[in-house]
């Protein structure tokens, strides 16, 4: 027979960890999945119940910043019986590598999920290198390079 220990499940472990180790709580961070494909980095952030107008996504100096806010307005005569959902502001910052094209970020918010696609920069994409056959052309190019004053 399985028993549920109610006091254990009512604990906010993020808050407990933050207080014990004096670090910021993870409560204000949007959960994220990241997938790297051959031509892009795809990110998905869980933002259920957030007004799309409150979501802000920006890139500055290869740092992607996401902020969003979900507010809960309670009538003065109401009494909260349970409060388990997170409210307030979330913020997430990610440092993007130079191999990504931060100028072409695309984003879509659908069913509580913010999907972000960051293409791989053209110069960072894998490409075939043509191999010359024989030594004629490369030997001539090397000889021209040796004689220059560069």
Strand order of the largest sheet: 1-2-7-6
User: Any low-confidence stretches, pLDDT <50, length ≥5?
Assistant: 1-11, 22-26
Give the overall average pLDDT: 79
- Number of distinct beta strands: 7
Number of domain units: 1
Helical proportion, percent range: 10-25%
Report how far the terminal alpha carbons are from each other.
82 Å
The gross shape turns out to be: rod-shaped
Proportion of β residues? 25-35%
Number of helices: 3
Cα gyration radius (Å): 26 Å
CATH topology: Immunoglobulin-like
H and E string: HHEEEEEEEH
Name the structural class: alpha+beta
Classified by CATH, the class is Mainly Beta
Second rung of CATH, namely the architecture: Sandwich
Specify the biggest β-sheet: 4 strands, antiparallel
Provide structural commentary.
The radius of gyration is 26 Å and the shape is rod-shaped. It has one domain (28-141): Immunoglobulin-like. The chain has helices at 6-9, 13-21, 136-146; strands at 32-36, 40-46, 56-60, 63-70, 88-95, 106-110, 113-119. Helices cover 16% and strands 30% of the residues. A four-stranded antiparallel beta sheet has the order 1-2-7-6, with no helix packed on it. It has a three-stranded antiparallel beta sheet with strand order 3-4-5, with no helix packed on it.
């Amino acid at each position: 027979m399985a028993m549920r220990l109610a006091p254990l499940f009512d604990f906010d472990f993020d808050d407990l960890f933050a207080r014990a180790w004096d670090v910021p709580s993870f409560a204000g961070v949007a959960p994220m999945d990241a997938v790297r494909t051959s031509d892009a980095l795809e990110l998905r952030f869980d933002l259920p119940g957030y007004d799309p107008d409150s979501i802000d996504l920006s890139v500055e100096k290869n740092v992607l910043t996401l902020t969003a806010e979900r507010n809960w307005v309670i009538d003065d005569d109401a009494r909260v019986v349970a409060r388990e959902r997170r409210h307030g502001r979330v913020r997430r910052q990610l440092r993007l590598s130079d191999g990504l094209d931060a100028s072409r970020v695309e984003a879509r918010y659908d069913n509580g999920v913010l999907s972000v696609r960051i293409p791989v920069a053209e110069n960072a994409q894998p490409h075939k290198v043509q191999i010359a056959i024989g030594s004629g052309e490369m030997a001539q190019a090397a000889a021209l390079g040796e004689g220059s004053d560069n």
